[in-house]
Amino acid sequence: MLDMSGTLVFRIALMASIVMTGLFSGMTLAITLLFYPSVRKLSGPEFTSICHRFLRISDIGPANYTLIILSMLSPTIALVGGLNESESLPFTLTLAGWIVFLVGSVGVSRFLLEPLYDKFASWSDQSPPGNWESYRKRWYWFTQLQSFSSTCAFVLYIAALDQLFM
Question: What predicted TM-score, i.e. pTM, was given to this entire model?
Answer without folding.
Answer: 0.91
